[in-house]
Specification:
The protein has 400 residues and is of the alpha/beta class. It is built from 13 helices and 22 strands. The protein binds cytidine-5'-triphosphate.
Amino acid sequence: MLLENKNVLLCITGGIAAYKMADTASMLVKEGADVHVCMTKNAEKFITAETFRVLTKNKVYTDVFDEDPDDPVNVPHISLGTSADIILVAPASADIIGKIANGIADDMVSTVVLPATCPVLLSPSMNVYMYENKIVQDNLEKLKRFGYKIIEPASGHLACGYDGKGKLPTPEALVESIIYEISAAKDLVGKKILVNAGPTCEAIDPVRYITNHSSGKMGFALARAASLRGADVTLVTGQVSLDTPFGVERVDIVSAADMYREMTSRAGDNDIIIMSAAVADYTPENTATEKIKKKDGDMTLSLGRTKDILKELGSNKKDGQIIVGFSMETENLLENSRKKLSSKNADMICANSLRTPGAGYQVDTNIITLITPDSQEELPLMSKLEASHKILDKILELGK
Ligand code: CTP
């Protein structure tokens, strides 16, 4: 759980997208957050306060004069915003954006946001023409100048019937914005990190290819963890069905040759490179331009070696750069991984065995041994995100 011991305040205003906030509240609770909710009277026309009370197990405030049932001398419209770790105003109507931008406090949400001392995220959601109105845009610019963070609305079919920008992002995206702001110490700010992930596909003809079982989950978790810690992350990935982590620049590739090109052209700009992709070691010598038709008898496919990207980056390592590889083995895990550490001139190899339950491809967990020239540390079974944080901790240690 990424939001344990965090107090998250949801401020809901009157817009049809208010219904999405029930899922958002529920997902935040599942991440361990203590979720509090306040709503405007207009928000109550779209979703009831009772929904949020049940989901969050906390009293929901809808009126400036509502009392705290546990503490009658407390003033909730002040304490809600001063005790929260973060506030998300969503959906943020043009009305609330205008009020906050101009210091107006005349309903439960505006009177909570004005005295708040924590970071405030606003997620505008409204009709496209309302959103594009210069006054609304000017108010948003003003709010940004004062340190409020604006979550860009999504584009698509709007409830008012128009198509365009103005949709509230998905609950997953809203939760990820909160996680991004408060879940981790920003100890990688200023670091540029290049991560690769997933399988490569080596074409035999326009229909068939050679690939492997990599799901990309480890590399995506690494990119997510690094981004949560404030790094500037580029993720070069083979074909996977995973969402791009928040704040990460994604580059999609297909083959080992594509991976080589994208990694070697970017490597020089990065402080840290982490190679978790399962890059093919062999590729068909010739790719047929037309579908290969079957014939009587067997067929032999001639394969040539691909370039070892990690080895090449390791031998061209720039001063102060840290390069980390992965090693997937089915036998002699530590011995083979240590050989890779030196033959590829890597600073660390994260070794995992396909034979260990809970480790390896497709699953959300891993069991990794971190191998450096002077140390060896076996991590217990943990989620790929937790393992990613351990890997990043070790990288920071190596960089000292
Ligand atoms: N790697 C790479 N380029 C390749 C093959 C692998 O950069 N053509 C990288 C992987 O991304 C990983 C590391 O090298 O970080 C080790 O990969 P692994 O598949 O475990 O080992 P190989 O070097 O391919 O050796 P072997 O297949 O013999 O185990």
